[in-house]
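Shipment paperwork, digital attachment
Item: protein structure file
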Amino acid sequence: MVRLQVSRYFCDASGCAARTFAEQIPGVSVRHGRRTPHLTRMLVDIGLALAGRAGSRLAATIGLPAGRNVLLRLVRALPDRLIGAVSVLGVDDFALRRGHRYGTILIDMDTHRPIDVLDDRLADTFAAWLEEHPGVTVVCRDRGGAYAEGARTGAPQAIQVADRWHLWKNLAEQVEKTVAAHHGCIRTAYATPTAEAADEPDAAAAMDAAAVDRWEGSAIVARTKERYAAVQALKAQGKGIKAIRRELGLAKETVRKFYRAASVDELLVTARAGRCSILDPFKPFLHDAWNAGRTNVSALYREIVEQGYRGSYATVCDYLGPFRTQTAPPPAPTVPKVRRITSWLLSHPDHLDTDDQVELKQVRAACPELDTTAARVATFAQILTELRGEELDAWMTTVEADDLPHLHRFVRGLRADNAAVVNGLTLPHNSGAVEGAVNRIKMMKRQMYGRAKFDLLRKRILHAA
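Attachment content:
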């Protein structure tokens, strides 16, 4: 304990409201303060890092007991930092409440530090901020139209740069849809029966029929068909995506996907072939054991559980059901799933192992459309990584001549935002620092139990290290 002795002063002036006041020691005491500035700074840092409840527990552990509300009040009391001149600005949105309310974070790309937080993601709000802070020469943004419009209005002199990561993400989405649309070619190529399988056509057919029945009777198929019918019925009434979203209570992206789909099969093909079955690694063992006379499903289930199987007994029982009256055929070659093929197409060849390279060659040989897609993806990757934006127009023209409707949609998006895309593929600027800040905001929200007040979250964003 430090005992401090200071002077106390009295004022005799009749008009003075301060009758008595004490001497202050810089760095030790402040007027009306209950703690030293140094202690206050320590508690503020704890509040910025961990928010209320977790911060209060840590403070008590290190001998600085403070309630969670005390920490939150100290954070809220922090003054805003001066923004100053900003030449390269990064902008992106984040969810305060996903699907309902969003905010905007602004980053000084020279220092990679947040400089301001807006309480919505509207073009007018962003434009007004730019008008209040002139001097921005470059705006790094994602593909969102609101920020593009806000930048054109508030800072018409600024160069807009589309983020390369979002460009690659948009391409990946269309490549996955292309693979899903042509996955039938791959299944056909892998379905060529071996000599052993040809001797047991009935068993193979029964196994395939059972798999189809299990899929068609699953909850995901029923839900997808129901949602597709509801969205298409409202679309036929002339309603737009926003109106359908409000009426059905679905997310915007979900409604957009069902709204634009030409048929329900287009939606089901990715789900049907997008992921491997949890039973796939154990099928050869089950076939060999069944043909060896070990037909006790419960015993087989226990054996594969010991080998690492984490699925249900019902899955094993349904799979072995068609073999009750006949021998099990040799397991069919595993057909690469949509997402696995997509990852091959989007990966650099040097990053694939030998087996993946062999399977990718088989996939490309089985489907000319996927072979063309692979070539177009490789060319775009070179343009993106080597900043050869001047070659983009020729690439888009080549893609438009191909019979690849999903890539055509990607090209239309590029042409709609052509200037920013070319800048993103030419200039060294990118939005990596912005994406990192958004990830930190997500962590802050989790620490605040998902009910973050905007003013408190804004202070933490602007002052956290």
